[in-house]
Design a protein that fits this description.
339 residues; 8-stranded antiparallel beta sheet; 3-stranded antiparallel beta sheet
Length: 339
C-alpha cells in the first residue's frame, strides 16, 4: 500500500477540514486542520465566551446587590439617628415634665402651709377677741358696781368720771381685731383661690401626660355605632364592631389623642382606611380609623389632646366619622368605660 505521505496533495486535503499552503523562498509548506480540531476549537471558544458572559452577569448582579445593601444600610443608619434624636427629645421632655410636677407639688405644699399658718393666726385672734370680750364684761360689771356706790355718795360726778377711757379703749381693741380678722379672711379666700388654681393646673398637667385613655377623640361626636364584639342583634345594627363610631355630621373635624403615648402605626388599610395606632404603655393601645388625613408619623410622641388626624370616610365606610378603639393587653375594650 502507498503511505499517506506519498498520496497526492489533493487526496490528503480531503481528510482535513482546513488546509493552508505557505510558500517561502521557493519552499512550500502546508498547515492542515482536521474537523475534530476545528470542532474542539469552536467548543472551547463557546465555553470561553459563555463563561465570560456568565461571569460578567454575576459581577453586575453582585454589584447591584451590594449597592442595594449599601442603600439599606444608609436607610437603617438614618432611622437609627432619628430614633436616637426622638429618644433624646423624649428624655428631655420627661425630665422637664418631672421638674414641673415637682415644682407644682412644692408650691401646693407651701400654699397649704400658709393656709394652716393663717388659720392658726385667725384662731389666736379669735381667742384674744373672746378674752377681751370677757374682760369687757367683767369691767362693765365692776363699773356698774362702782357707779352705784358713787351715786350714793357723790351723785354729781357719776356721768363724767373715769370710765369712758376704759370703754373706749376696749371698743377700739375689739374694732381693730375685727378689722384684722376681716383682712385675714380676705387673704384666706385669696389663698384658697390661688391654691385651687394651682391644684387645677396640676390636675390638667397630670391629665395631659396620663397614659390611660380617657374621653372621646372627637369633640361633639355622635355615637352612630356602639361597641358590639359579640355581634348581638340588640346593639346598634347587630354587626360585630370592636370600637365606637363617632359621626361628625358630614363635617371634617380634628381627631385628638385620648392619652399620651407613641405613634406606632400611621398608614392605609383596605378596611380601616387611613388610621393611626398609638401605644400608651401599660398594655394600652388606641386606634383612630377612616381618617381623611393622618397628621403624625410612626415614632412621634404625643400628649393627650394633641391633634393626630382629621375625620373622614376612607376604607370601608359609609360616612364621615371616626372609628375609635381601646385595646388592653390585646383585648378590645368598650371605649365608654374610659370616660
Amino acid at each position: 500500500m502507498e503511505s499517506r505521505e506519498n498520496l497526492p496533495l489533493n487526496n490528503q486535503s480531503e481528510h482535513h477540514f482546513l488546509s493552508l499552503h505557505i510558500a517561502h523562498k521557493g519552499k512550500e509548506k502546508s498547515l492542515h486542520v482536521k474537523k475534530t480540531h476545528a470542532l474542539a476549537f469552536c467548543v472551547a471558544a463557546c465555553l470561553l465566551v459563555g463563561g465570560s458572559a456568565v461571569t460578567l452577569g454575576s459581577y453586575y448582579n453582585t454589584k447591584n446587590e451590594l449597592m442595594t445593601y449599601e442603600q439599606q444600610l444608609l436607610q437603617i443608619e438614618r432611622t437609627n439617628r432619628k430614633l436616637a434624636q426622638n429618644s433624646k427629645a423624649l428624655e428631655n421632655e420627661n425630665t422637664e415634665y418631672t421638674q414641673n410636677i415637682e415644682n407644682l407639688q412644692n408650691k401646693a405644699v407651701e400654699l397649704e402651709q400658709k393656709i394652716n399658718e393663717l388659720e392658726n393666726v385667725k384662731n389666736n385672734l379669735n381667742d384674744q377677741l373672746n378674752s377681751i370680750n370677757s374682760s369687757d364684761s367683767a369691767s362693765t360689771e365692776l363699773r356698774n358696781a362702782v357707779a352705784s356706790c358713787l351715786v350714793q355718795e357723790k351723785p354729781q360726778v357719776v356721768a363724767t368720771q373715769d370710765f369712758t377711757p376704759i370703754v373706749t379703749t376696749s371698743f377700739n381693741k375689739v374694732t381693730a381685731l375685727a378689722v384684722q380678722l376681716d383682712r385675714i379672711n380676705s387673704r384666706l379666700n385669696e389663698t384658697e383661690t390661688s391654691f385651687t388654681q394651682v391644684a387645677t393646673n396640676v390636675t390638667e398637667t397630670l391629665s395631659a401626660y396620663s397614659d390611660i385613655p380617657c374621653g372621646m377623640p372627637v369633640a361633639k361626636g355622635i355615637i352612630s355605632t356602639e361597641f358590639n364584639p359579640e355581634g348581638l342583634s340588640t346593639i346598634s345594627d347587630g354587626r360585630v364592631h370592636y370600637g365606637l363610631d363617632l359621626s361628625t355630621r358630614s363635617k371634617i373635624l380634628p381627631i385628638v389623642a385620648t392619652a399620651a403615648g407613641t405613634v406606632i402605626e400611621s398608614e392605609y388599610h383596605s378596611e380601616y382606611g387611613n388610621y393611626v395606632l398609638i401605644d400608651h404603655g401599660n398594655g394600652f393601645v388606641t386606634r383612630y380609623a377612616h381618617n381623611t388625613e393622618n397628621l403624625v408619623s410612626p415614632g412621634d410622641v404625643v400628649k393627650k389632646g394633641d391633634t393626630i388626624a382629621t375625620t373622614g370616610s376612607t376604607g370601608q365606610s359609609t360616612g364621615i366619622h371616626c372609628h375609635y378603639e381601646v385595646i388592653l393587653n390585646g383585648i378590645f375594650q368598650d371605649p365608654m368605660d374610659f370616660q
